[in-house]
Amino acid sequence: MTRGGALKKLIMRLPTSLSSFVLLLATTSVPLATAAPSLTQDSQCGCYLTNGTEAGYFSKHQFFDFRNLAQHAGVPAAITDFDENAEAKKTSQYFESPEWKDAWMIGSWNNSVGQRNDSSVKMVNSPNNVYIEANGDPHPASKTWLTLRTQRLADFQTAAEIESVSMRYQFVSMRMLARTVGASGAITAMFTYRGGQNLADVQESDLEVRTMDPRGLIHYTNQPSYTDDGMTKTEATANATMPDGLEWTDWAVHRLDWTPTKTRWYVNDHQVAQISFQTPRDGSKIILNAWSDGGEWTGNMSRNDAAYLQVQWFEILYNSTTEAVAATMSRRREDAHLLPIQRRGQQQDGTCKAVCSIDQTTTQGQPMMLWNNSAQVLTSRGGSLLSLVPWITAMVVFFMSTGFMA
Ligand SMILES: *[C@@H]1O[C@H](CO)[C@@H](O)[C@H](O)[C@H]1NC(C)=O
Ligand SMILES: *[C@@H]1O[C@H](CO)[C@@H](O)[C@H](O)[C@H]1NC(C)=O
Ligand SMILES: *[C@@H]1O[C@H](CO)[C@@H](O)[C@H](O)[C@H]1NC(C)=O
Ligand SMILES: *[C@@H]1O[C@H](CO)[C@@H](O)[C@H](O)[C@H]1NC(C)=O
Ligand SMILES: *[C@@H]1O[C@H](CO)[C@@H](O)[C@H](O)[C@H]1NC(C)=O
Ligand SMILES: *[C@@H]1O[C@H](CO)[C@@H](O)[C@H](O)[C@H]1NC(C)=O
Ligand SMILES: *[C@@H]1O[C@H](CO)[C@@H](O)[C@H](O)[C@H]1NC(C)=O
């Protein structure tokens, strides 16, 4: 068969073959054009976009999963000596792991200095009250959780506090799957904290559960909630009821979104409070605790009674003050330190190409890639080359069908 003959045959067949050719093109092109959000790794995310009342972008993500730590589980007996509480060892190797130690410190301070004027009991924080506990629920949703315990002993209150190593969290969207259980007279809390010389310098946004309260009530406060001369600042506080008849003894996702203008609080994705007054401004720590000082705010615990903050996981999206400083400096010096950030999808001008979500995810703690702008840019720029692939495939099939290749 001559070339001319084959070409003639090809042209003659064109009308019927064209439809299958177009169909083939369309089907092979579709997967290239639409990329559905898919699970990815933090190393692939340039930034994270939150949902909720006001969407926000954050540059970093941390996830602490306490659900599968059976090898570290165990409930230590309370230490009845005041001094020994502060000196107690960590309760398991988990709290020596880099995963934990790089991010968290366990408090051992006491309230002998600067205690609230209404407090009626000495209180000491102890590493002995921070432990991994086996899940004993009837239909356990996890193997373990993290417990922060506070207990009233003969002549003092033993308490628990964990605080972030970093004090540079500046704007966050943080969430914990948690519950508060136990006796009346204690507080459990999740908050941002920046101390100050004077009361007025303190920057702090609190979630507080008081175990003496009705079980659906939560207090949210942008501190300080009172002045040096004892005046209450009512705008600083919002008292909210948990949605859907939930109680704080139920497992629920508690979320704080701290943005430059507001703090917003969610329970299981329902916004329950927002406060614009005294929104924290500067780099802060993240703290969780369980405590009581027998004062008016916490209430009194009866001797040997205890209360617990239990946390299955803690997740945080955040910007940090160090990062902004480092990025500015390295940009000025054209330092190679910025490169890893760029590789993660962050452009030199601070905008983000690879946008992820922890809200849309199918696996708690693992981000989904929402979109990758560099991929889109690359496809349209190198479009001619990339789109040749289905064309060539189609041509081959088409020619085969005409018998050209035979
Ligand atoms: C965020 O998105 C998830 C997944 O679509 C949804 O279940 C959740 O209700 C949303 N949260 C808020 C606060 O809108
Ligand atoms: C976090 O930092 C990014 C990049 O600088 C910025 O675009 C974003 O608005 C910041 N997020 C908040 C909540 O301020
Ligand atoms: C209690 O706190 C004070 C003040 O920080 C400190 O001097 C003292 O050593 C602490 N006591 C214990 C037992 O930790
Ligand atoms: C404690 O301090 C508050 C606020 O400053 C003040 O209103 C109250 O009178 C003080 N109480 C006592 C017992 O000193
Ligand atoms: C919130 O509750 C506390 C304690 O019950 C109360 O003292 C305070 O006045 C309440 N604040 C608001 C704004 O309702
Ligand atoms: C707590 O109990 C102590 C005595 O143990 C008492 O002095 C104090 O007034 C009580 N506080 C409250 C808020 O009931
Ligand atoms: C984004 O797409 C580009 C081009 O396809 C690719 O090189 C890059 O690895 C992608 N980035 C991420 C974070 O997926």
TrEMBL record:
Keywords: Hydrolase, Membrane, Signal, Transmembrane, Transmembrane helix. GO terms for molecular function: hydrolase activity, hydrolyzing O-glycosyl compounds. GO terms for biological process: carbohydrate metabolic process. This is Glycoside hydrolase family 16 protein. Residues 64-322 form the GH16 domain. The keyword Coiled coil does not apply. The chain crosses the membrane at residues 385-405. Residues 1-35 form the signal peptide. It comes from the Eukaryota. InterPro entries: Beta-glucanase-like, ConA-like_dom_sf.
